[in-house]
Amino acid sequence: MTPMKWNDLSEEACPVARALSVIGDRWTLLVLRNILLGMRRFDMIQGDLGITRHVLADRLKKLEAADLVERRPYQERPTRYEYRPTAAAKDFVPVMQVLISWANAHIPSDKPPPYTMVSREGRTPLAPKVIDENTGQEVAYSTVWAEFTGDKD
Length: 153
Prior knowledge:
The chain is mainly alpha-helical and about 150 residues long.
């Protein structure tokens, strides 16, 4: 296999590497989480995360360039923007929910969670499970296997 270079992950054949090229640092993922939770404005996101303005601006530009957020003006003089999730960001919600579930199971906290993901319809807490659309079988370590098809130097 050809070794991966960190600065070139967006060009990799591996989909995990390409995903990490966009959301692979903690600030980017937390900014995306906040936007998906309904925080749309710069100051709100910054206040919640305690992130510097420079780092937040950089991560928002990165998310916008990756088509995960769309910047829309909500005020003139001075012009201020809100950040709205795109369809691609909304498609990330199940991934985020599985990550939350995994963390709750394997990295427990003594602190109460700041939010609970619930179904919109019944407002019941979610218990995510990944199912293969082709077979209906649960996707788990014991049910999948990677067949390498790419570069095998």
